[in-house]
Design brief:
The chain is an alpha/beta fold. It contains 7 helices and 10 strands.
């Protein structure tokens, strides 16, 4: 992998059993992403976008190929080591927010720092929630927050670890147009501010064009 590369996928394929036959989701994916780059992954529903994102994060294992994150082959690590590396280097933003309902906004943001044993979890999380405009909502539970506010909590949680890589899967998919536009503006602002490398799955061509590069998936392969 090149010195300025954050992520490199080589020959990635994913096949699963479907009844008595094999279903090929991805095949022969080669993708290299440079430090500080913003890349959009676009394609029709069922083209394998979210599966690719999960493989790049080491959340799922490929049937073939390798993924290197910051020069480390993810699938040469055991699950505990992959999890530890994700905790240090990767932030996630999902369409469905993925907040824990029994935790307040502050507690949700603190969670990855606490798992990493960080003594400054509360102060860092409070500052990050203030950064996303939720300084007055620290002790609210997700059910008492709007969709846009929940996604702001998710952004704070993703950025609080100061990740090398941010993976976003349809980050505005559950929001109305106005709230979605606000979230995307904030995401790109923070991405620039913290110098993060961004990989974003989206079906929105307008949103994709805000990224430096667009990668298209069709039929489980990178479109030429």
């Amino acid at each position: 992998m090149k010195n300025d590369s954050v992520l490199a996928a080589r020959g990635i394929g994913k096949t699963v059993k479907s009844g008595d036959s094999d279903l090929v989701i991805l095949r022969d994916i080669d993708l290299e992403i440079t430090r500080g780059e913003a890349v959009a992954v676009v394609g029709a529903s069922g083209s394998g976008k979210s599966t690719l994102l999960a493989l790049l994060a080491g959340l799922d294992s490929p049937s073939t190929g390798t993924v290197e994150l910051d020069g480390t082959d993810l699938f040469m690590l055991d699950e505990d080591a992959r999890s530890e590396m994700r905790g240090r280097t990767v932030g996630f933003v999902f369409q469905s927010f993925q907040l824990l309902p029994a935790l307040t906004a502050l507690e949700n943001v603190m969670l990855p720092l606490e798992l990493a044993g960080r003594a400054d979890a509360a102060n860092s999380s409070r500052e990050m929630l203030e950064r996303v405009g939720l300084g007055e909502r620290l002790h609210h539970y997700p059910k008492h927050l709007s969709g846009g506010e929940q996604q702001r909590v998710a952004l704070a949680r993703a950025f609080v670890v100061r990740p090398t890589l941010l993976l976003a899967d349809e980050p505005t998919g559950s929001l109305d147009a106005e709230a979605g536009a606000d979230i995307i503006d904030l995401l790109f602002q923070m991405n620039r501010e913290y110098g993060t490398t961004l990989v974003m799955v989206t079906h929105d061509e307008g949103l994709a064009r805000r990224c430096k590069r667009i990668v298209r998936l069709a039929g489980g392969k990178l479109a030429q």
